[in-house]
Here is the input.
Amino acid sequence: MTTIDTYIDAFFEDTQDTELAIFHDALKQQLAEYYSQRKHGRKPEWDDAIAALPATTALDYSLTQDTVKIGAGDQLNNSNNQQLDAILKAFLPWRKGPFQFFNQHIDTEWRSDWKWNRIRPHITDLKDRQVLDIGCGNGYHLFRMLGEGAAMACGIDPTRLFLYQFHLARHFLPKLPAYILPLRSEHLPAFNQFDTVFSLGVLYHRRSPVDHLTELMSFLRPGGELVIETLVVEGDQNTILVPQDRYAKMANVWFIPSAAALENLISKVGFKNVRTVDVNVTSTEEQRATEWMTFHSLSDFLDPHDPNKTAEGHPAPIRATLVATKADR
Ligand SMILES: C[S@@+](CC[C@H](N)C(=O)[O-])C[C@H]1O[C@@H](n2cnc3c(N)ncnc32)[C@H](O)[C@@H]1O
Here is the structure.
């Protein structure tokens, strides 16, 4: 029977003849600890759903358009389409996308394609590169990275729901060199070998931005590229917002620097050629409730009388993308 572990094993099988193999034992130990410490109540139900997926490979797919498309509408018969539809709905809420599974379009909370379209023009061509995406969510951007020609796209994310969503897609594309390991970045070894490391929407969730940046550097090969996207505030290199309570109703936000302060930190950690390539005010068109994510979304997190402020009175979300290089040996 296909389980989530089958898909995780694929990472180890596919990388056994690569330089990542020297880290297999360390990663397997971290995964064993993760599973023993964090039992998930819905695992049996979700494993049954994965096992009930139609046993077919998508004959047609696209990773180069805004919507990640898996399978053509006419490939599955009616009964398989209905079965798949019920399985996709068992994995609500869908936050990152959009995706199309055969004839079912998933209009996710986030237009993650907008983020990708802002980042892509500013990064080194991903063709033939080994990329690592820290905090990859359900892997939407992993698919887009492969669409740009990456040789392998590995994601790290501890949230179990997103791992299952990723594997709903990968089930139909078993040969794709895309993987998610359900770990935290602080539990990874110093790979020192990825060509590009992404950290998109993660820094503000970390208690120590310096530790996070240091980890990211340890994953890169010398000369490799860091791409970091995070919440920022307006200000100079001494401006940092540390919300005492919630930020836009999120409890786990620690550290929101200005882009200039973040450039400063990234340089201080030892990266070269640090630059801010994009700054963007998050709109309620980019993050909103849909039928695939019916809970509150950005419009509920802002001050109803002033969209430039969060519900708590902080500056409303602005996101910046910064790019930097790990020095050559
Ligand atoms: C705001 S989402 C960003 C998802 C995606 N990267 C994007 O930009 O659309 C943050 C993600 O980081 C993950 N995350 C939080 N802490 C993490 C950690 N210490 N290591 C790895 N991932 C983490 C969460 O599970 C979540 O999926």
Notes: The radius of gyration is 20 Å. The pocket of S-adenosylmethionine is lined by residues 96, 112, 115, 134-137, 156-159, 162, 184-186, 200-202, 205 (CB under 6 Å). The first helix runs from residue 4 to 14. The domain at 4-325 is CATH 3.40.50.150 (Rossmann fold).
